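So, can you check this record?

>
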Amino acid sequence: MSLKNSSHLIFALTMIAIGILSLFSGGFGGIWGGVPKSLPDRQLLAYASMVISLACGAGLLANRTAASAAFVLSVFLIIWTILFKVPVIVRNPLVEVAYQSCGENLVLIAGAWLLFASLADEPERKGLAKLAGQSGRRIAYLVYGLALIAFGFSHFVYLNLTVPLVPEWLPKPLFWAYLTGSIYIATGFLIVTGLAVRLGAVISAIQIALITILVWVPFILRGPLSFEGVGEPVVSWALTAAAFVVAESLSGQPWFHRFHARAIRKGAAVEGAL
């Protein structure tokens, strides 16, 4: 199985798992947070997020429905972010965790949108040229890079929360907290500026995966966990899946090459020839 198919499959199964988590918890599974408790019909939104997760995850597994599922998931995530994540930043512009929380959704949006861009057939591309084409892809990389920068700053601002998460067998936990935060900011900068998009995407995907494996897998194995306790590991796994979708979408591009439409077209042509 190719990296492209593997990242696609893992992303789809992750969305299904989040939907199942929502089903059994009766609430918002993993990525669907930020809804005010005072909001009317809050439970209805929880059911909607469950249905979207299950339906889009299952849809991604079938060739005929994969592009549509990726599109619907992208739109739903964008609307969710605008309604429930961005307002928190507006109300608390100096609280970094608001940016980190929004960044988690931005990573998922980037992954889902780049899946749609790669899966949409020619008629769909013509109808949504600006969305599934080069401009849409560039925006997806941009929001992904901004999310990485937010993750990096959160490592520095919340050192008291980051350091205890470093595995005990690693020496100098403060060093690792600073290092991972610096890598997030550096890779985000490479992507946002377009200086080395593929390099930044691959390094960040590897780091997110390592954090998931080294921090959250042992956390789960120590169990037992409540539905609330499993939220952070689920989010980390979802971010890993989306990050690898983003990294794979740049397959065929040079490692050190400034982003522009010609480079993306070249990368797509190389991928199509493989």
Q: What stands out?
A: The first helix runs from residue 3 to 25. Residues 3-273 form one domain. Residues 107 and 144 are 5 Å apart (CA to CA). The chain is about 75% helix and 0% strand.
